[in-house]
Amino acid sequence: MIFGNTAGQKYTRSGWTTIWTRSMVYCEAKAEAEGFQFERFSLANMRPKAVTTPKDCGEVNIKDATGHASERMVDKHYDIRKIHRSKATE
Asked: Checking CA distances to 35, which of 10, 44, 68, 71 falls within 20 to 30 Å?
């Protein structure tokens, strides 16, 4: 468990959705008040962003931070700089 509630238990799905939504609303209001642009994100966006940003800055050894065994795995699944294309099926 990464995030626990005040009783030390895991959040229910609806409880997590509520707390996450409140956090995003707070961040939007804070950013607007301070003149910054804020774009909502989810937990699923965090690891790809944490891989892509250091790579943009020239970092080459990202696998230690992600826990993966190879850079190939990290590049394949988390590097969001690449555009993945596929052929249409009939």
From this structure: 44
